[in-house]
Amino acid sequence: LGCALVAVGSPVVPLGSAVTASCTIWSNLCRGLEQGKVRITWMLDNEPMAGSQHQGPGGMEVSNLTLPQFNRTQAKLWCWVEWNGTKQRIGVAEIRAGYPPAKPFNLSCVLNLSDYGLTCQWEQGADSHLPTSVVLKCAGSRAQVVTGCTPQGGRSCCTVPRRLLQLYQQMEIWVSATNALGTAESERLYIDPMDVAKLDPPALQSIQSIPFQTDCVALAWEVAQSNAHMELQCELRYRAPEDPAWALVTGIVGQAGATQCCGFLFGVRYHFQMRCRRSSARGYWSEWSLGRNYTTHEKAPSGKLDAWWSTRPAGAGGQLEVQLRWKAPRQREANGRVLGYRVTLSPRRKGRDPPTVCNTTHTRCNFSAPVGTRRVYLSAYNAAGESAATEVVLLESKGQALAGLQAVPQGEHSLWVRWEAPPAPVAAYVLEWQRVSSEPSHCSACWQMEHDGAATTALIQDGIEPFQRYNISVYPFYKDAIGVPVHTAAYSKQKAPSYAPKLHLKSISKSDAELCWDPVPVEMQNGFITSYTIFWANSTAEVASAAVNPSLSSFVIRALKPSTLYKVHIMASTAAGGTNGTSLTLVTMVLDDIEIQFLFLTLGLIFVLLILLLICFQKNGRVKQQFWPSVPDPANSSLGKWVPAELQQEPLQVPGAREPGLAAISTVTVLERAAGKQPSTWGKEPATE
Fold it and tell me: Which of 432, 465, 491 is the last residue of a domain?
């Protein structure tokens, strides 16, 4: 209705500063508010704010609001009034907050020779949270400041057209950033646009070897048409595929169109690139040219070959079996691609080639030689020729051994070997290593020679893998013999074993259990086994453990409870961790073997006794006769019925019934057995008194 006005001190304020606002209502102009008290309230976006209201002249109602700290980058401040029981919005003011623009920095410019536009870029700095206008300004020698260009889409770069530039004259260039809180300008950049021109790269035309200077090549190039009128300074870079970095040749005059470079290896494929800039050295380098490959010509290999051997008698026939190994020559000595190697028993002389015992493309050879052979001759050849022969003296292994040897990890794929030098002077050392595995294997390339006889350390890298065990041997080379080797074992990196052994129950009693296991294969150990740990627990969760020496493969658990179920497992450990095996369940016995034997013996005896008793009952008469023999009844004997004649004539004296007392014996008669007569029974007359 146009009866209210909201005013703020400033619609744009620094972030965190105070904001003041007022809301004025003319009641006589607002229909419905003529009568009654007008109540004014505030809302900052959706958040209510408390203001102070007072009455002004002419029925004017005024509410003032102060926000002590405005921490929003953008917000709307609403003025509300109550009308007919509802709140109505009658005015609004939009407030923005931020910072003055940050100072642009890192201003740089490049002149593009294709359209001679000057492209400049910079970094804007921190966000101001406010709409900011950014322009690139420039001034020529006449001090006329013009807007060179305006970046689009919030980018920090733009291009000044050619019509605003003064070439070959110094210009002043800077960036200006402006918002409602201020203006910031970058440092001035004073340049001649031609000094920052980025040239087009040259084009390499040809590369050729110079026959008379065998390590040199001649290069020819052509500069870009846009740069033809300039004095140029160029650089050449090249490298072989295995080189870690580029080799750089500087100080090449661009207008010359040709140059010579030396120091190249023979028979090596190189990649060449070139770039140029103005000779004033104040401009930018061009991009590197398209690359060009060239392989230098070869020549015969040079240098000596490192060789290592072993010998043994071949049995009957007076022959010696020789296993000869050698290292391929380094690239600097190969002088090209080596096609093969030749081994002879005598040196090559003019006009006569000795018999070849081995001609191979490999770096090893097995051959037979007459017993007593002490020297063989080894050479390498390529398409350009053959190297001078390396004399290999087959020394005997009878020299003094090293005083000590150890190997420690240097990385996942290398081992650092240290040894104690023997008292006798040493000419060189040979280090040999083999990976330990369950199946026999042999690495013919796993050796190296250290030519420094004073050395006590060496780094071995070929074929070294983590979590694998290697046996390392070091042989000292003396003037007339090879020392007895000293051995050690090492890992480049360790971890917990791949798996733990499987437990087997060998024997068990009521209190003891003997366990056994097969050792973990060396390929799966992943390190040196430091210990085996046996864990056992019963149903009441009583857990016990014992550490076992890694050299053992059995263990006896003692002090177990009779007739109890136990769960047992084994853990194999290295210095880097341990691995648990599967669980084995066992139940202890109720009795020991001796107790069981005694029980069975007792039961057996009882059984035998029961059998005997059964037999006794079945044969009762015979048993009774044996233990209780039958005694004859004297009354039924023949003696009892027979009375001799003498006794018949004697009157029998019997004591009277009325005269009790002891009977008097008047006569004792002794009977004798008649000769040849066997009486059925016999007896003696009882004596009475």
Answer: 491
